Amino acid sequence: MNNVIKILTVALLFSAVRLRAQEFQGVATFQSKTKFEVSLDSSSMNSPMQKQIEEMLKKQMEKTFKLTFDQFESIYKEDESLAPPQPSGGMFFQISSGSDDLYKNLKRNQYTESKDFLGQLFLIKDSIQKFDWQLSPETKQIGSYLCFKASYDRPIEESSFGIVILEEEEQEAQPKFRTITAWYTPQIPVSNGPGQFGGLPGLILELQDGETNILCSQIVINPNDRVKIKEPNKVKEVSLSEFEAIRVAKYKEMQENSGRPGKGGEHGITIKIGN
Question: How many domains does the chain have?
Fold first, then answer.
């Protein structure tokens, strides 16, 4: 068994060297889905209101992204042609789906992320996060690519799910850590992946982060229409910590202005993601 793994590793490294020797660009399409539950503090759990909320959240939590990359740079953004329409009127939900444009420069170990938060544009520039991946010999096939497993225990923050509910019950305490599982292929030797994820000896093609699953559905290497990877630069820059402080302050202000009912109110809403 060990000899088989060694032979396979040598073969993958050989293909990686061949790819590195070329000036190449790739475009990977990712499908992102998040499981959730909605419960209303009401005697009618099958009410039209609940169905409307569930349908809206389903559209918001099933997204398509494209990662355009070369060996050192990448841009990750939602496919605008497939983006769900934004809700208007009625009850307000703010769902953070990640970024509008996420640029990564692996040489500089820096990322630049443009975010539209409540109609205001921010440009976050910071260092790329390092993940303490635990590599595994376990493999599986994703399309035509042989992928290896890696995992990472990620600390959970209160706002990690990025959902703001202006009329909500107190949420249960979350566990302190959750395990992120990635499947990467050395056949595409770029240390990159969807969103902020990367740092592995190959492109991440699938990622399980709590109740969110991100799966690569298509890869095109050296497309005919090459895309120039540009760093966003048209908005005032802030650090990640500065943006988080602005976001938390705005959330608190919105909750105070909403006049939400206290615990046990008739119209409380709980949205549960995971356990």
Answer: 1
* Strand 145-155 relative to strand 134-142, pairing: antiparallel
Q: Is the model's pLDDT at 239 over the cut of 50?
A: yes
Determine the pLDDT at residue 82. Answer: 57
Q: What is the mean pLDDT of the chain?
A: 75
Cross-strand partners of 54: none
* Beta sheet of 26-34, edge-to-edge order: 134-142, 145-155, 177-185, 203-209, 212-221, 26-34, 62-69, 73-78, 101-105, 110-117, 120-127, 237-238
Phi, psi of 242 (to 5 degrees): -65, -40
Cα separation, 40 vs 49, whole angstroms: 9
Closest by CA position to 243, among listed 122, 97, 118, 103: 122
Predicted TM-score (pTM) of the model is 0.70
Pairing between β-strand 120-127 and β-strand 237-238 as defined by DSSP bridges: parallel
Tokens of 80: 């605008």
In this predicted structure, the answer to whether residue 196 has a pLDDT above a threshold of 80 is: yes
Q: How many Å apart are CA 186 and CA 188, to the nearest integer?
A: 5
d(CA 18, CA 195): 26
Residue 152 contacts residue 170 (beta carbons within 8 Å)? no
Domain that holds residue 54: 2-272
Under DSSP, the state recorded for 46 is T
d(CA 178, CA 154): 5
